[in-house]
Write a structure and sequence with these properties.
66% of the residues lie in helices and 0% in strands. It is mainly alpha-helical. It is elongated and about 50 Å long. The protein starts with 7 loop residues before the first helix and ends in a 5-residue tail after the last helix.
């Protein structure tokens, strides 16, 4: 399948997931500040939120470190050279996205910003509909049956 042309739906412009996450965080914090100021209508959980945010960030860093260690791309639009099946990739095919979403939820809890939790949900929806199909199609084309076997045994998220 070398040299196959991607369908138009896979060629559309995508905001890289880290930038998407930062944009959603910024929008949620700005909207919260404009509407509610410093108030936390549902309360704050600084310790629980910080633990969740750090766990999500650590999960994401572990996944990124494995990609770097193996010399394959960390960029979602990059061409993979190695299929990683260890570490957090044993539990889910997209641990970096899961880590980003968990970090966003942890930040929402720590700061008491419900819109940030909505931003985390929006992040998951966009990544699931826009980024993951593109990435999984590229992995399938690159690794063929090896990726099919991996995808059959490892859940997409966790």
């Amino acid at each position: 399948m070398a040299g196959a042309v991607e369908p138009a739906s896979l060629r559309r412009v995508r905001l890289p997931p880290p930038l998407l996450a930062f944009a959603l965080i910024a929008m949620a914090l700005a909207m919260h500040a404009l509407v509610l100021g410093r108030a936390a209508p549902l309360g704050r959980s600084p310790i629980g939120g910080t633990v969740l945010a750090l766990a999500g960030f650590g999960w994401m860093l572990w996944a990124a470190w494995l990609l770097r260690r193996e010399g394959t791309t960390i960029r979602p639009a990059g061409q993979p050279t190695v299929l990683i099946e260890e570490g957090p990739y044993r539990f889910g095919r997209h641990p970096m996205y899961l880590g980003m979403a968990a970090a966003m939820l942890g930040l929402a809890l720590a700061l008491g910003v419900p819109l940030l939790a909505a931003g985390a949900v929006a992040f998951v929806v966009v990544v699931r509909r826009v980024h993951i199909p593109f990435e999984e199609a590229r992995l399938q084309r690159t690794f063929g049956g090896w990726y099919s076997d991996y995808a059959a045994h490892v859940r997409r998220w966790f």
